[in-house]
Amino acid sequence: MNVFVFVVTIVAIVCAADTIQKIVKARAAKQHGDAEVDEAMAKLDQLEDRIRVLERIVTEEKHDLRREISSL
Description:
The chain is mainly α and 72 residues long. The chain has helices at residues 3-59, 62-71.
């Protein structure tokens, strides 16, 4: 085997391995990013529910307000 062919083969193998490694890392990062988005959306939903409760409490009359605060 010619030395030149041997060097070119090694370089091709290294480039292919590097490309495969980058693809695997990109897929893992995308899956991790999707999980973070789902977690953030769940927290946002919880906060929206809490704000709805607070808005309802604030807009009620004072008598109902005392009762709601006591029940919390």
